[in-house]
Design a protein that fits this description.
Blueprint (H helix, E strand, L loop, with lengths): L1 E6 L2 E5 L3 H15 L18 E4 L6 E4 L13 H8 L3 E4 L6 E4 L1 H7 L7 H14 L12 H19 L17 E4 L3 H9 L5 E4 L1 H6 L4 H8 L1 H12 L7 H19 L1
Antiparallel strand pairs: 1-2, 3-4, 5-6, 7-8
Helix pairs in contact: 5-10, 6-9
Length: 263
């Protein structure tokens, strides 16, 4: 009988003798069926020099190595450590009936809560509001910033399709991804009227719109002097302010124009 390999308690045996094979199987069973009382018995050639201690959580005996004795081990496993550290209390949720745990710090600062999660707290608050006769708000009005963002997206698509993705200053035909909607009078100066004015915004390439800052000289030549005067008159006019209804009207108008262009 020859041992070809040994790793912890398992090893392989190569032999033709049946009696030797049975002895080896019995020896393997003995190592597996070792009792707790024999914790100090050595599993190999080296004797055990540690100590057998009792777990403070499950009251089970465990063997501690000499290197770990300096740390004063009191638990047999990590699960027992977690159970020992739980010093809070268990509560039952008033909404779903689920049992949940609260530690002492949470009980001290927040008190004894009635809900296991934010979802259960929200359902309880809704029931309380309905009991007092308040109706929940069904629809929230969109903000002006979101409406402005939606309008710009629809308006820019309309301008690019109207100009057939051709730059107004250099005349280059660009793809839909590289095509920009460039302002003649900048949107930071012109106000809301020139921000979405179809004569002030045209399709431009990335080079003219970003690198050349709009290429204002050629932009003005393409528009002509009459349109330039009209746009500057609108710029010098009284400032305007749009409400949510005006933004929604403009969004629906340019969506309709886009659907007509697609047809």
């Amino acid at each position: 009988m020859k041992r070809t390999g040994f790793k912890r308690k398992t090893f392989t045996i190569k032999t033709s003798n049946v009696d030797a094979l049975l002895k080896a199987v019995k020896r393997m069973k003995r190592t597996k069926l070792r009792k707790v009382s024999n914790l100090m018995e050595s599993l190999g050639n080296k004797p055990r020099t540690g100590e057998v201690r009792k777990c403070q959580t499950c009251q089970k005996e465990f063997y501690s190595r000499p290197a770990l004795l300096t740390r004063n081990p009191r638990f047999c496993s990590i699960t027992c450590v977690g159970k020992w550290q739980k010093t809070g209390e268990n509560y039952n949720c008033t909404v779903c009936g689920k049992e949940y745990y609260k530690n002492n710090g949470q009980i001290k600062h927040r008190g004894e809560t009635k809900y296991c999660s934010k979802k259960c707290k929200g359902t309880a608050m809704k029931k309380m509001i309905r009991a007092y006769g308040y109706k929940p708000q069904t629809k929230v009005k969109p903000r002006i910033t979101t409406l402005k963002r939606k309008l710009w997206k629809v308006f820019a698509d309309y301008v690019k399709k109207r100009d057939k993705y051709t730059c107004v200053t250099c005349g280059e035909v660009v793809g839909s991804y590289n095509c920009h909607a460039g302002h003649f009078i900048p949107k930071s100066v012109g106000g809301i009227v020139l921000y979405f004015h179809p004569d002030n915004v045209h399709a431009q390439c990335a080079r003219c719109n970003i690198w050349l800052s709009g290429n204002q000289y050629l932009y003005g030549e393409r528009l002509g002097p009459e349109k330039v005067k009209e746009l500057y008159a609108l710029k010098n006019g009284p400032p305007q302010k749009w409400d949510a209804e005006r933004y929604e009207y403009e969004i629906n108008w340019y969506k309709q124009l886009l659907s007509e262009m697609d047809d």
